[in-house]
């Protein structure tokens, strides 16, 4: 197939995204087509099947950067988890599911999801668009056949899937190739009506989540790191709100912190990458380490006097957190806790810091923050250690949900 026009549009070294910001005024002047309108036309022609958001998903409407309406499903969601999230920050997905249990929402967390493979694509360039789009469609179809709507946890997967949706809509040759591959594995070409990130779900439910708060966080100074993969890829699809920085910056994450009553401090490098980049964490690790410390952590502490850095993506949380530990070897001792917005919200709402938020996996010092929030983490730690001993003795583990027992089908 003729892929060169597509490749030219999306090929990137990753460097330009590191310090990139989004020019809202330029986008307003030259507005791209709404892919959802084109998707509806393709569905009417029988070219694709669309995963629609239904009333059962209890959608809530928000506005994107261009003032377009985006519907965010809040119920009956299929968890598309993150590779790095589960390996480095397990309290990230468990905090999301803990809130869904609290709010009585229906969800499905099963074993049939695969990696989106975008890290490989951005990091090594060994993948290609047909492979990326096929993996995306394969995961979307798995959600489609279960009757649940896909909710994307990872910022990289979210940005990649938005690009894949748009490319599939724009290029018939790509659709034909992906359809051929899907037929081989017994699946169909399906595309979701909206690509939805968990931070958007958190955003639209922020008032309900804030109502669950049991710890006062009004004296906690937070700094927000918006993930490049979330707001710099297909930026016109990102949620903006006139009440958040005058509608000049993405609203998710900042809005939930304000709803919880925390202070949100500004800092001069808010738009910079965390250092993860689109390939730097894999190919130029010293760049990642120095960038995350010098351009992000140091500025958050010295300029904004932050108590905690709040993120919305796996790679950002890991990069900002782990590099502080590595930085100690070079005299950097900032000890700024780093966690996802949903983890901070869960702590404020009384979730167990060890069993649910799993803060013990984070390497930057978090003990002072939890003391300041009034959380008795020492008792939680003692209870958790006792729980581990009981598990060793054969006790059944506590679960957030009953794990699906159906057999694996990994096509």
Q: Which strand-content bin applies to the residues?
A: 5-15%
Low-confidence stretches: 1-13
Overall mean pLDDT score? 90
- The count of DSSP E runs of length 2 or more, i.e. the number of strands, is 11
The biggest beta sheet reads:
4 strands, parallel
Q: Briefly note the structural class of the backbone.
A: alpha/beta
What is the C-alpha radius of gyration, as a whole number of Å? 21 Å
The span between the termini is 24 Å
What percent of residues adopt helix (DSSP H or I)?
40-55%
Global morphology: globular
- As laid out across the biggest beta sheet, the strand order is 9-8-10-11
Helices, by number, come to 20
Structural commentary:
It is a single chain. The protein has 20 helices and eleven strands. The protein has helices spanning 4-10, 15-18, 24-29, 35-44, 83-88, 91-102, 118-124, 129-146, 155-170, 172-184, 198-204, 206-210, 228-231, 254-260, 280-283, 285-302, 314-327, 341-348, 367-373, 377-392, and strands at residues 49-51, 60-63, 69-72, 77-80, 107-108, 149-152, 190-192, 221-224, 263-264, 308-311, 338-340. Strands 9-8-10-11 form a four-stranded parallel sheet, sandwiched between helices. It has a three-stranded parallel sheet with strand order 5-4-6. A two-stranded parallel ribbon has the order 1-7. α8 (129-146) crosses α9 and α16 crosses α17 (314-327). The longest helix is centred in the middle third of the chain and has 18 residues, at 129-146. The two termini are 24 Å apart. The model is unreliable at 1-13 (pLDDT under 50).
């Amino acid at each position: 197939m003729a892929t060169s026009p597509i490749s030219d549009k999306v090929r990137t070294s990753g460097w330009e995204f590191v310090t990139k910001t989004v020019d809202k005024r330029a986008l307003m002047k030259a507005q791209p087509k709404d892919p959802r309108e084109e998707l509806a036309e393709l569905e009417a022609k029988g070219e694709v099947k669309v995963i629609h958001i239904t009333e059962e998903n209890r959608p809530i409407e928000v506005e994107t950067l261009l003032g377009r309406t985006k519907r965010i499903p809040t119920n009956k969601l299929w968890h598309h988890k993150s590779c790095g999230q589960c390996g480095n920050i397990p309290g990230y997905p468990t905090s999301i599911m803990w809130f869904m249990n609290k709010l009585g929402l229906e969800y499905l967390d099963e074993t049939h999801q695969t990696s989106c493979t975008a890290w490989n694509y951005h990091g090594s360039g060994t993948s290609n668009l047909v492979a990326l789009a096929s993996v995306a469609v394969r995961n979307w179809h798995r959600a489609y056949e279960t009757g649940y709507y896909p909710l994307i946890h990872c910022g990289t997967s979210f940005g990649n899937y938005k690009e894949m949706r748009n490319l599939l809509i724009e290029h018939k040759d790509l659709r034909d190739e992906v359809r051929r591959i899907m037929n081989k594995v017994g699946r169909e070409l399906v595309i979701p009506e909206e690509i939805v990130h968990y931070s958007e779900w958190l955003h639209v439910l922020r008032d309900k989540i804030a109502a669950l708060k049991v710890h006062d966080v009004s004296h906690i100074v937070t700094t927000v790191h918006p993930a490049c993969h979330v707001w710099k890829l297909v930026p016109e699809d990102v949620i903006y709100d006139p009440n958040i920085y005058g509608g000049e910056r993405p609203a998710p994450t900042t809005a939930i912190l304000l709803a919880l009553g925390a202070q949100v401090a500004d800092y001069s490098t808010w738009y910079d990458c965390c250092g993860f980049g689109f390939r730097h964490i894999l190919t130029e690790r010293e760049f990642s380490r120095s960038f995350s410390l010098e351009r992000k952590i140091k500025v958050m502490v010295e300029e904004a006097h932050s108590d905690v850095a709040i993120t919305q993506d796996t790679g950002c949380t890991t990069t900002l957190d782990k590099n502080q530990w590595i930085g100690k070897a070079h005299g950097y001792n900032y000890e700024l806790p780093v966690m996802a917005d949903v983890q901070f919200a869960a702590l404020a709402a009384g979730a167990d810091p060890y069993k649910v938020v799993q803060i013990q996996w984070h390497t930057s010092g978090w003990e002072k923050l939890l003391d300041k929030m009034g959380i008795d983490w020492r008792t939680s730690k003692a209870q958790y250690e006792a729980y581990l001993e009981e598990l060793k003795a054969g006790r059944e583990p506590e679960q957030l949900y009953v794990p699906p027992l159906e057999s694996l089908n990994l096509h």
